[in-house]
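Batch 3, record 17
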Amino acid sequence: MARFLLRRLLSALPTLLVIATLAFALLHLTPGGPFDSDRTLVAQIQRAIEARYHLDEPVWRQYLRYLNDLAHGDLGPSFTYRDTSVNQIIAQGLPIDLAIGGCAIGFALLVGGAIGLGAASRPGSLRDRLPMTLAMIGISVPSFVIAPLLILIFAMRLHWLPSGDWVGGSWRHLLLPSLALALPYTAFIARIVRASALDVMGNAHIRTARAKGLGDTAVLLRHALRPTLMPLVSYLGPALASVLTGSIVIEQVFGLPGVGRFFIGGALNRDYTLVMGLTLLYGALIIVGNFVVDLCYAWLDPRVRLNR
Amino acid sequence: MSAPVAVAERRPRRELWRRLCARRSTRAALLTLGLIVLAAVLVPWLSPYDYSSPSWTHIFTAPTWAGGQVFGTDALGRDLLVRVMWGCRISLLVGLVASVVSVVIGVLWGATAGYLGGRTDALLMRSVDVLYSVPFIPLVIVLNVLFGRHLVLVFIGIGAVSWLDIARIVRGQTLAICSREYVDAARALGVRTPAMICRHVVPNIMGIVIVYATLTVPAVILFEALLSFLGLGVQAPLASLGSLVADGASEMQSNPYLLIIPSILLALIVLCLNHLGDALRDALDPHEP
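Prediction for the assembled complex:
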């Protein structure tokens, strides 16, 4: 186990290096810099600012400097948000994203899983076809369409929930964003679980369980559930990644101060350090997500050995 | 004599089409999609209105049958029906081109890795693993901001993102196909590697590739819509469905139809394509009745 953890950790490093290099090259090799503006500064001031952020050095030295800081856990100062470091921005914004993303994934797993299992228990019945038709529609409506529609219905017409205006932030502010983010994933998970459960139900070990006289619920929960979850787990890796990027849009719609808004703002202003830092953050979160997926695999299927 | 001839003459393509159209919902999806594509292609010639010129006397006309502007008009008095159809045009074009790009890259990458095996395989698939962890949507956003909004960039960006899945699937299929006798036979006849991959391996994985390509198109359309929604896709006055949804969202308090109509169209296109992908998979799958 310890060896597996170490291996995974080491294999994540080159990936992060690739991401850092890609982002660095993209930002530095394109025309335009963070401090080019319409307002022309006195040449001395311009030079002073660039020297302050080491932008006057050759690109390769900036790259090495960045990697060195990165190795020390320092993502550098933000160019646009003066006197704020990228680390501070992440520390401020990430909890909000994690809260929304966590709620969304939790909701999608519970509700989607329940719907999928319910549908699979009576294939072809109304209990199967109605939710599956809804799920088909659900995977076709992206969260950036659902979000304004939810605001329109629950905030503007019914006045039940706030539409945004994050101040301090109560759970009521998180409800609509999480729901908007969760719905497409709920639909996806319902479809995956149903297909997988139907597949598993045809297996010999299920027939054996039935033959020894177990009831439907016991068969489902004790024997069918674990193998049913396997395809779901492999879907979860990419899903975790797209929940993160999905929250960029959700933050935009609901005006939440998560990292996604800083990301877009940073990209528009060529805030090199901010964009690179957040890209690395997204990459690291994806790696962690895939890692969790691997662990889940081993837990669900003892045949999967971790020492590969 | 007639029976064996009939078996010999069974055409797989026609057979597939018959199985595909067996379900009413699939026929409905095909028809809806066909109509939308037709309208999107013909829109410049169908309507007296164009998508860009403002009409200051018709701002925020609600949808009505009477005036001929059945979807109403937007904040600049432009006909929403025409704009939505132009949006479909852009979305479908992006979906098609980017999917072709990603399928070509994915198939060649996966087939090469699967066919050659060994160190090449390890290298190619390891790079796919690494690329999986690269947060591409943020990178495409950065790309679009840096180089200015350009449709070609959207194509390249989206194509670069979505070939990874196809590469993995194709590699798996190729591994299975390489153990077949006809591959051995071709090799014994001296067929070289590129010809081998293009003539013998790729045609035999086309079934699953077509299914995944059909499912890539809606994913790509949603991705483009997301970029446009953030204001990073197509440039005004041209509109895509994503930017129309974004425009509608900013007016939804007073004129909800501006949000609802483009949303429905976007969902409808993606829904039809998703359903078609599912139906194709069922039709190509020999296990299902």
